[in-house]
Write a structure and sequence with these properties.
The complex is a heterodimer of chains A (112) and B (114). By secondary structure, chain A is an all-beta fold. In chain A, 0% of the residues lie in helices and 46% in strands. Chain B is built from no helices and eleven strands. Classes of the chains: A mainly beta (112), B mainly beta (114).
Chain lengths: 112, 114
């Protein structure tokens, strides 16, 4: 699985958009970009994933650069409940054991 | 739906004791797995199951046993607890082994081994 690099932390004002970057310069053609988050003392929560095209769901938007070497997760209107550690993961969609490996992630603090 | 439930939420064991961490899901998911999460180590897969009666090892299976007699339940047994097994344990289930997006996690069990 390709390695990802994320900033260790960032602050965001409540109600504003939060843009979380992720670098994955060694991504392979069949690897997807996944985003998960983990709110304190809770299990990981799936947010969104994509291969090439930008994606949007009820939680967030995912913007993937044309060369696929980086991506940005956008939380359009951050709330206090979005305070969490956000993980960017790059891997093939099907893998033995559905293994989910987290790196350091970005600790996001949403402030009032 | 209750989703994925785990019991207990917290547990303290002495070295050498055995115990079972319970995991249940009510979504009729075929696929279930156990992870441990340690500070600075991220998530590591312990064991997983693709259906009742079928289990397989993940990255860090030593010291743990699993069984899958029903679709709903996937208990994790610690045979002889060691301080190195102090961790937060997460159970997950999914309706498919194809794709992380299908995976739902339980709230976790915090285990301290003295």
């Amino acid at each position: 699985d390709a390695k990802t690099t994320q900033p260790p932390s960032m602050d965001c004002a409540e109600g504003r958009a939060a843009n979380l970057p992720c670098n994955h310069s060694t991504i392979s053609g069949n690897e997807y970009v996944y985003w998960y988050r983990q709110i304190h003392s809770q299990g990981p929560q799936y947010i969104i994933h994509g291969l090439k095209n930008n994606e949007t769901n009820e939680m967030a938007s995912l913007i993937i650069t044309e060369d696929r070497k980086s991506s940005t997760l956008i939380l359009p209107h951050a709330t206090l409940r979005d305070t969490a550690v956000y993980y960017c993961i790059v891997r093939v969609r099907e893998a033995a054991g559905n293994k989910l490996t987290f790196g350091g992630g970005t600790r996001v603090l949403v402030k009032p | 739906n209750a989703g994925v439930t785990q019991t207990p939420k917290f547990q303290v064991l002495k070295t050498g004791q055995s115990m079972t961490l319970q995991c249940a899901q009510d979504m009729n998911h075929e696929y279930m797995s156990w992870y441990r999460q340690d500070p600075g180590m991220g998530l590591r897969l312990i064991h997983y199951s693709v259906g009742a009666g079928i289990t397989d090892q993940g990255e860090v299976p030593n010291g743990y046993n699993v069984s899958r007699s029903t679709t709903e339940d996937f208990p994790l047994r610690l045979l002889s607890a060691a301080p190195s097994q102090t961790s937060v344990y997460f159970c997950a289930s999914s309706y498919s082994h194809r794709g992380l997006e299908t995976q739902y996690f339980g709230p976790g069990t915090r285990l301290l081994v003295l």
